[in-house]
Amino acid sequence: MSLRIRLARGGAKKRPYYSIVVADSRSPRDGRFLEKVGNYNPMLPREHEDRIVLKQERLQHWLGLGALPTDRVARFLGDAGLMAKPAIPTQTKKSQPKAKAQERLREEEERRKEAEEAAAAPVEETPAEEAPAAETPAEEPAAEAEAKAEG
Fold this sequence. Notes:
This protein has helices at 56-64, 71-80, 99-120, 127-150; strands spanning 3-12, 15-24, 35-40, 52-54, 68-69. It is α+β, with helices and mostly antiparallel strands and 151 residues long. The chain has a domain at 3-80: CATH 3.30.1320.10. It has a 5-stranded mixed beta sheet with strand order 4-3-2-1-5. The protein is rod-shaped and about 115 Å long. The mean pLDDT is 82.
């Protein structure tokens, strides 16, 4: 017999209320259980003291016997200090973008990095090259004006 500490749903439609119970892992979610060890009311604000109520002594007893909490109950127990707080799982593979979308994101990231590097690189200006280019157009009209004045 494998024991689980899990939530059993109660309450009305669209008004959930959960009992935290110790049950055989093979029994239905809202079915037969061995002991009720707390309750959880998600309709209350997070700061409210009655949102999660736990019977700590009984929970320690069942944990000592090898009962395994579900992910949600393990987070409740971690917040209460009855066990180590579990890490929040990372994003599942199913919800990640597909291969082509990931490739597009990578290419976009590379283009963005190249643009940042180009913007961050200092622009070297050589005054020697610019000066003759600036003088040349100014000299031509002056030369044309002299030719017209002479002619």
